User: Fold this.
Amino acid sequence: MPSVHHGRRKSFWARVIVETAVASIGIALLSCALIANQRFLDRHFVPSFFLPRHWYVVLQTSGRLAMAVLGMWLALVARRRTGRFAARTPAGALRIVIAVVLAIGASELVLNRVHLRPAEWLSADDEPRRQLDPRLGWTWVPERTGHKSIGDRIIDYSIDPAGYRVSRIDEPVDPERPTILFTGESVMFGEGLTYEESIPAQVGAMMGVQTANLAVHGYGNDQAYLRLQTELPHFRRPVAVVSLFMTALFGRNLDQDRPHLGPGLVWLPAEQHSRLSSLAKLVVPYRAETTVERGVTVTQQVLRATSELARAHGATPLLVVLQFGHEAQPEQMLRRRILDNASIPYVLVEIDSSWRLPWDRHPNARAARAIATAIESELRGRLTIAGPIKKMFLVLIAKPLLESGFFSYPYVATDPLLNGLRSEGALGRSNVCPPAGTRSPRVAASVQSGRYYCHGKLDARRVRRTNVQNLRQVHRSLRHAGPGVVG
Assistant:
């Protein structure tokens, strides 16, 4: 009798534990289905480049229904069946639980032996070929031509020794010539398009200016900025820097499985996560609100820094925002949250949603032509205005002041103002670099750090070094400065 009573108690508690566990899972699924309305999903699932908005909504709605049905089935049907099974064979139920736990652990161990690439670089054999880069995550394999069969065409992807897409390897980009630089990812690179059909090549042909295509497949805005930061100093005469933003690609700025930039543009290495959790995130790309907010902040900082970097090298920055088809309300809200709320200037280019390659979601040649035309029109307008104002400033204000000795700059080879004066034949190195013995310790230190200072009293008013396009502000600053520091 005692043994029978003990067996019944054991079966009873086994049934209670199993039914409680199954019911809890069912209730959790039901709760998720109720909480995950469309507003919740729009906050935690950012727009997708590869899935149209209506498909995304259908998949999300189907997922909610599946969770609701599965939750009800577990809570009302499976709970009782598993409870009866556990009551009959408690040891069997325990063995099943142990087997599931061991299977999960074994899967994690096996996946740890498999080299998983970042989410935006899953195939090592895809053309054009990529190679690992410790700072950027990956770059193109240089000095190589890859061939890819797309639709009924064979597309050649030629990468020059510097890692830029060109028409032919033996015709690399010349960093000595005036150049318009393009940053971005596969859209700007020209996935599925010949070199002549790509956006940078078409803009270059329209404007008669050499272009440098720095775009790399799978890049987020932070990677594009880091690549520009490395490559821009190599160009002697950069004309403009064209960068790209799409709300449909914002999710890449949230990825941390690759080297990335954090708040304050601090470089961070790739974060290591459980392989199973990484795979789960690929299937269900849920993002916490804190992750999205962090991505918004970093994206704003990256886009501002890109413009400042271009101006620091004497180039005109242009941010192009692409929108294919109708802009849904969540996409519009995200665009305004990132760009408009931060007062980041941009040009919105809307493209017909049907102007895509038939085999994927990238723009076709017609869309690339429309984008290139919009860029060319905007650049011509900006450069037409900036050119005369810059020359007026150089000739009428900066040149007389420098020649009169009212103030002078230490010589810095990359300074666009001094480059402009030298190109006008108005200034040589001896005119702007004061003798080393005449510099105070503070001025000497500032010269070494690459900052710009005048001769004179160190307690004089500091004047912010401004964009030469803003002639009125520059003139006002110089008038009130007196001999002192120009930063």
About this structure: Residues 127 and 146 are 6 Å apart (CA to CA).
